[in-house]
Amino acid sequence: MDWGAIFGNAVVELISPTTAAYALAALGLAIHFGYTGLLNFGQAGFMLLGAYGYAIPALKLGWPVWACVLTSIVASVIFALILGIPTLRLRADYLAIVTIAAAEVLRLVFTTNTFQDVTGSANGLSEYQAGLLQFNPFPPGRYGFGPWIFDNRVWFFLVIAWIVVALAAVFTWLIMRSPWGRVVKGIREDEDAVRALGKNVYSYKMQSLILGGLFGTFAGILFVLPRAVVPSYFQPSLTFFVYAILLLGGAATILGPIVGSIVFWVLLSFFSGFVARAVEAGWLPFMTQVQAGQLRFILVGIAIMLIVVFMPQGILGNKKELAFVK
Amino acid sequence: MESTRTVPTHSAGRWLLFLGILLSALTLSGIAASPAMAEDGSTATPTASATPTEEPEYDFTIKGIVKNDGEPIEGVTISVEGNGFQADTETDAEGRWTIGVPEKATYKVTLDEDTLPKGVIVKEGGATRDAEFGQTKNVTVAFFLGEGVRVTVSFFDQLVQRIVSGLNFGLLLALAAIGLSLIFGTTGLSNFAHAELITFGALMVLTFGVTLDWPLWIAIITSLVLSAALGWSLDAVIWKPLRRKGVGLVQLMIVSIGLSLALRYTFQLFYGGSTEQLPGATLPSDIRFGAVALSWVDLVSMGVSILVLLAVAFFLLRTRIGKATRAVSDNSSLAAASGIDVDRVIRIVWVVGSVLAGLSGILWAYFRPGVSWDMGFQILLLVFAAVTLGGLGTAFGALVGSLIVGLFVELSTLWLPSDMKYVGALVILILVLLFRPQGILGRRERIG
Predict the structure, then answer these.
(1) Is residue A192 part of a domain?
(2) Do B264 and A247 make contact, defined as CB atoms within 8 angstroms?
(3) Which of A97, A117, A123 sits opposite B38 (nearest CB)?
(4) How far is residue A155's CA from residue B359's CA, in Å, rounded to a whole number?
């Protein structure tokens, strides 16, 4: 058993762009769910809009980077409005059902062969990074230290991703200690009380939905930068993974989503690597390599159940600030 | 006064918003139609560098040539369906067609006879053929054409066929939806793991009826008994202890999502990712009622659904325990105070709901057709849409909602491409929440 490779692969996840993207998506959910109490199960939809909103103009229309990001932002805000207008006045689980349904609608629309020329249907799009890569300050080649050896492209995406995550975390920290943040947290605790204070709860909820959705959108861009974008990334399980990360780290915390994402990916990579190697070495004779890959999803599912029941505040959360609407 | 605030007062503005989005969707399709863009797209596919073939969009392709008497025919629509994937294409000037598919599996390839020239029909083997991959990444499907008079299907006949098909689909959705709605009504839980109860029923029939080769009816009964046992044990092992612990509803919902994920991939672990057929699932549709062609499986499926739904209605309206269920649904504290054993009622609801979901899964396996590890999850959102449409927590609302969703999904294939048929139903869900958030049969107080 090659323990070095297993640990090496696991440690790579500490700083990988994927970890950063999931952390940012989870930070968006922290605004929705942890701070405002909104049950958004369509984060995959926001991420999809970010990914395609960036990729399609970059690839098909040759727009510069800023215009592509702007497209993503506009698409995401419109999506948030469509989701929010009918559901934010209703009970929490309506938003859950509508968001998950809307995210699926988006995924199906981007999967259908009807729009293949724009979306690339099931095979998605690739090679849309050229506009961004012309700003790459890293000289060509592969370098790094220890297990972290990437080529200059990955280094560039990695640095961008963590800068965005850091900015988002600082922004969230600032906004949550502002009057806006206090109102939003009040809505989570007792909507009627906040309404009695003369605040427009609906409007605050909508702003929170848009803000968290924007984080999801940026996460979508960061997620697909190092790879090609295909619609099957954005299945409901993506949202569930992000929820697992959020709950693991602590729903109503700033650093929780980031720590959660790092812990989640390192553990998951270690576990998959270990099981795959164990199957290879014949330790688990009843299992094939493919089955070993599926085991991780089962593990995530069980982890979600156990965390929610036994450790609802997560790693960094405060037991007093349980982010669950009763 | 939450309820008064739910009436949409600016509906005109909202419609404008929707129109705007529709417009932007149209613009998107406009870009799609421009040939210059299409060229851009073909040079930028992810596998382009890896496999230098003519059609590099997919890993696996199904292809063929449509010729009549050696003459290629252009513009014939060929569609591929199977394993949860659908696509269609047209033949080019040389009569060639190619459709990429995401994985190696068995697909149904259909030649649309309406797009053949007048007087030409598919002679042998029928217009629908199976395509199965061997060792290679390509499979060729040939259609044998010839002169002949074709029975054309008018729009009206298609409509009638779709309505019957939609009713069938709606009825099987209703079986799952009523269970989901009863569980929601009595416990307040939005049970995302209901999808796995649906899959479980079909998988058990597959295990006993195909793998162990038991007679089909025994396999079905075994499957339903095991579904009941699963429902019983889920409530006993997970949900009752959590209710005792006083865990909040949102937490319960997230637990059900975790459970759904874990169960779904456990199914995949044991049954693999392929799609299997139940005995009799591929019978020809040879029973004709006017324009409508059905197989006897369709007839049995609809009959069973109707009988079971009537039985559930009788159970809810006429039996003591059914009345107790409705009482718990209405107000569980009051029900407990008037001497109803709430935990026992909930246990019964879990068992009934699981059996109904299992049965729905078996019928869904025949309707799709096929059994796969994620088949329940594919219709979970439609079931949720049905329940929400009818009104969360109302059993008969779930029935009405299911029929609407079933009809809508099937009828939309008359206009929408078939790989987008679920989109319509989900859009309807969002629209209903805009205008009648409590659902069709729901009461306003439930939504606040």
Answers:
(1) yes
(2) no
(3) A117
(4) 53
CA angle A84, A87, A93 (to 5 degrees): 120
Phi/psi for A105 (5° steps) reads -55, -45
- Using an 8 Å CB-CB cutoff, list chain A residues near B253: 39, 93, 96
Nearest-by-Cβ selection for A324 from B251, B258, B261: B251
* Number of domains within chain A: 1
pLDDT, tens digit, for every residue of B74-106? 778 888 877 667 777 888 877 788 888 877 777
Strand ranges (DSSP E) for B106-159? 106-111, 120-124, 128-132, 138-140, 144-147
CATH code of the region B60-152: 2.60.40.10
Q: Is residue A127 part of a domain?
A: yes
Contacts of A122 in chain B (CB under 8 A): 58, 85, 100, 102
- A311 to chain B: nearest residue by CA? B251
Half-sphere exposure of B348 toward its Cβ, with a 13 Å CA cutoff?
17
Q: Which residues span the domain enclosing A251?
A: 3-321
Report how far apart, in Å, the C-alpha atoms of A184 and of each of A204, A263, B225 are: 7, 28, 48
**Record: contact B429-A98, CB cut-off 8 A:** yes
Is residue A39 one of the residues assigned to a domain? yes
Using an 8 Å Cβ cutoff, are A51 and A224 in contact?
yes
Question: Would residue A326 count as lying in a domain?
Answer: no
CA distance linking residue A269 with residue A287, whole number of Å: 18
Domain chopping of chain B, boundaries: 60-152, 156-447
pLDDT of residue B258: 92
Helix (H) or strand (E) holding A268: helix A256-280
Specify the pairing of strand B120-124 against strand A142-145: unpaired
The enclosing H or E element of A114 equals none
Nearest CA in chain B to A33: B250
Beta-carbon separation of B434 and A85 below 8 A: yes
Query: Across chain A, what does the average pLDDT equal?
Result: 88
Contacts of B263 in chain A (CB under 8 A): 301
pLDDT band for A8, please (50, 70, 90 cuts). Answer: confident
pTM: 0.78
What's the one-letter identity of residue B42? Answer: S
CA–CA gap between residue B4 and residue A304 (Å, rounded): 37
One DSSP character per residue, A204-243 reads HHHHHHHHHHHHHHHHHHHHHTTS-B-GGGGSHHHHHHHH
Per CATH, which fold does B156-447 belong to?
ABC transporter involved in vitamin B12 uptake, BtuC (1.10.3470)
- Residue B126: phi, psi to the nearest 5? 85, 165
* ipTM score for this prediction: 0.86
Is the minimum CB–CB distance between A59 and chain B shorter than 8 Å? yes
Q: Which phi and psi (to 5°) does residue B85 adopt?
A: -120, 140
* Closest by Cα among A89, A199, A50 to B14: A89
CATH number of residue A139's parent domain: 1.10.3470
Span A43-73, pLDDT tens digits: 999 999 999 999 999 988 889 999 999 999 9
Pairing type for strands B128-132 and B106-111 reads antiparallel
A130 Cβ neighbours under 8 A, 6+ residues apart: A58
